[in-house]
Amino acid sequence: MTQVGHDPKDSQIWYYNGTPAACTFVALDYVLPKFANFSVPDLVVTGPNYGTNLGGFVWTLSGTAGAAYAATNRGIPAIAISASNQEVPYFEVKNRTNPATWAAQASVKFVENFIATSPKNGPLLPLGYGVSVNLPVLTKKNQNPDFVQTRFTGNAHVNEAVLDKEKGTFTWANIKPYAAGVNACINGDCSLPGETYVVENGKASVSFYTVDYSAPSTEYTKSLIQRVASFVSSDK
Questions:
Q1: Is 82 a catalytic residue?
Q2: Cis before 48? omega within 30
Q3: CATH topology of domain 41-156+187-227
């Protein structure tokens, strides 16, 4: 298979053999300018990924998140969608009664509703903002989950290394009890439920993110600024 190309039966489906973020860049800088009648999309949707990306720790490791983040950093609105289903190649999905199809349908429903509520003639998202959606386990009886506004922190997991003494190798596990660092509420509305809790209880989470990593202007931040003032200059 070549590194970049399109489905032999559908010229609107393109692939690139690279990381998810690289796929975003190849789409923006190669596929669209050369093969579409526009160069900058109104929205980039990454996923639905197989497997959720819940909490700030997993978010920073996620390829699905990285692909959306790449678009957001380029000033293009983006939505990252992660589902709870297992991996399955798209060419093996041949009916509508499977978790991958249900995840796709739930994703389309959310994206269409999100677009429908956007400002007229305005961007779908403010500059530097994006959306992370996580879908719960979907079944025949629960194909249309409720979408709940959430935050990244709250019941979020972080990993630890676990030694397999027989093999002499390491695997991973979620730290129990919950780690305090990944669940510290620093930005946003601390009254919102954590996305991990919401998805584990059968609903879909919707968390907003920004690309600005700077610490917010709080008393903690001010104390840090004062602490380093003797050896760190400020150009303000």
A1: yes
A2: yes
A3: Stationary-phase Survival Protein Sure Homolog; Chain: A, (3.40.1210)
Burial 190-206 (b: 16+ CB within 10 A, else e): eebbbbbbbbbeebbbb
Q: Which two tokens stand for residue 78?
A: 């983006």
The model's pTM is 0.93
Kindly name the residue from 62, 82, 107, 205 that is annotated as catalytic.
Answer: 82
* Residue 88 to residue 110: CA distance in whole angstroms: 22
> Quick count: other Cβ atoms within 10 Å of Cβ 10?
8
* Mean predicted lDDT score pLDDT of the chain: 95
The domain limits of the chain are 41-156+187-227
| DSSP β-ladder status, 159-164 and 204-210 | unpaired
**DSSP per-residue string spanning the chain:** --SEEEETTEEEEEEESS-HHHHHHHIIIIIHHHHSS-SS-S-EEEEEEES---HHHHHHH-HHHHHHHHHHHTT--EEEEEESSPP--GGG--SSSSHHHHHHHHHHHHHHHHHHTSPTTS-SS-TTEEEEEE-----SS-SSPPEEE-BS-SS---EEEEEETTTTEEEEEE-SS--TGGG---SS-TTSPBHHHHHHTT-EEEEEEES--SPPSSHHHHHHHHHTTTTS----
Flag whether pLDDT at 90 surpasses 80: no
d(CA 23, CA 63): 10
pLDDT digits (tens, 9 = 90+) for 1-59: 569 999 999 999 999 999 999 999 999 999 999 999 998 999 999 999 999 999 999 99
